[in-house]
Amino acid sequence: MSKETIAELVDVSRFYGKGDGQVTALEGVSLSLAKGEAYVLVGPSGSGKSTLLHLLGCIDKQDSGSVIIDGIDITMKSLEELAPVRLEKIGFVFQSFNLIPVLTAYENAEIPLLFRGFGSSFVKDRVNEVLEKVGLYDRKHHYPRQLSGGQQQRVAIARAIVGNPSLILADEPTANLDSKTGGDILDLLLNLNSDDELSVFVASHDIVVLERISKVVRILDGKLSID
Ligand SMILES: Nc1ncnc2c1ncn2[C@@H]1O[C@H](COP(=O)(O)OP(=O)(O)OP(=O)(O)O)[C@@H](O)[C@H]1O
Ligand SMILES: [Mg+2]
């Protein structure tokens, strides 16, 4: 793998279930993502987008093939062993935000840093910095239920970037938002890509996303074709 590659999949397959009921979610997928680029992953419902993102995000394991994240070959590592890779290299943004309802915006955003055991003054400065970056500094003591969908997704992005990851994975991040708000969230992700050179991989069928990201990876029935 060249130094310029942030993530690589080689001949990766993922099956769910066993026997007659087995579903092939990914089949023979090979993919190389360049560092500092933004990609959109497009495909119909059930084509394997979330499965692919979960493998890249180290929250699921392939059944065959190899996976390399930022120069680390994680093929043989268990999900437990991958916890540090997940925490240090990956920021994950979900369609449904996945915030913890009983924690404020600030407390949600600080979670990844607490797991890593950073000191409290570093954590405070860094969390305030990312909340400022996503435009939510003045809402930091609000709970998710007190925030709009777009604001909740901003908190989720703050949480994803707080640990200074190398790769942001976003699974349909605009799907639960109106088109204006979705466009603002996409702007935020693309600004992180252009200003901070974060590598970004977004699964979406949203036309707003497709119009703005030129590197397109297409998936159909668990198989890729790259434009
Ligand atoms: N935990 C699971 N157990 C069994 N089958 C699963 C599981 N997760 C996903 N699948 C199946 O794997 C295939 C790929 O699913 P996946 O969620 O990756 O698709 P997707 O492209 O993200 O779809 P959507 O656009 O609806 O989110 C589908 O056929 C799905 O039913
Ligand atoms: Mg999905």
Supply the key terms.
10 strands; 7 helices; 227 residues; single chain; Rossmann fold; binds adenosine-5'-triphosphate; 27% strand; binds magnesium ion; alpha/beta; four-stranded antiparallel β-sheet
Overview of the molecule:
The chain is an alpha/beta fold and 227 residues long. It has 7 helices and 10 strands. The chain has a single domain (38-50, 78-226), classed as Rossmann fold. It has helices spanning 49-56, 83-89, 105-115, 120-133, 149-161, 179-196, 207-212; strands spanning 5-16, 23-34, 38-42, 64-69, 72-73, 90-93, 167-171, 199-203, 215-220, 223-226. The chain has a 6-stranded mixed β-sheet, sandwiched between helices. The chain has a 4-stranded antiparallel β-sheet with strand order 2-1-4-5, covered by helices on one side. It is globular. The model has no long low-confidence stretch (mean pLDDT 94). The structure holds adenosine-5'-triphosphate (ATP) and magnesium ion.
CATH topology (level 3) name: Rossmann fold
Which residue ranges are poorly predicted, with pLDDT under 50 across at least 5 consecutive positions?
Answer: none
Instruction: Give the oligomeric state.
Output: single chain
Tell me the distance between the termini. Answer: 21 Å
Given helix and strand content, the structural type is: alpha/beta
Tally of individual domains: 1
CATH superfamily: P-loop containing nucleotide triphosphate hydrolases
The assigned CATH architecture is 3-Layer(aba) Sandwich
**Main sheet strand line-up:** 6-7-8-3-9-10
If helices are DSSP runs of H or I spanning 4 or more residues, what is the number of helices? Answer: 7
Based on DSSP secondary structure assignment, what is the total number of beta strands? 10
- Determine and state the CATH class: Alpha Beta
What letter string, H or E per element, gives the SSE order?
EEEHEEHEHHHEHEHEE
